[in-house]
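Morning!

This is the sequence you dropped in the shared folder:
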Amino acid sequence: MQVHQLAHQQVRKILWCGLGYSVVQIGLFIRLTFWEFSWDMMEPLTFFATANGRIVGYAYFLLTSRDPTYQDFMKMLFLSRQMKLLKSRKFDVERFKVLERKWNMTSSSFFLVCFLPRERID
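The structure's back. Tokens below.
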């Protein structure tokens, strides 16, 4: 399996775990609100859980200087996973960047040259 496919697969697993966490949290809030306690007791808890999510989003913005969107988060996770996989396979990323600059290519044109059949490059 290629590195970018493996990185994409890992990112999808992380995102599905995030969805699972959200579903469990909402289910827990519903259970506690309607069966165990009342809304008067659960309202502050749900407020702080929501505020905590906003604080995490703002911290992400401060640390990365990027919008805290799901697409941006997915891109950041993908690049992080891809770099880890490349390093684990002993791929020299810095050497690749030097060669890329030397040959005056972008990453997309490199992949076009390497992975597309010859007749499609025209």
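Headline: The mean pLDDT is 82.

More detail when I'm at my desk.
O.
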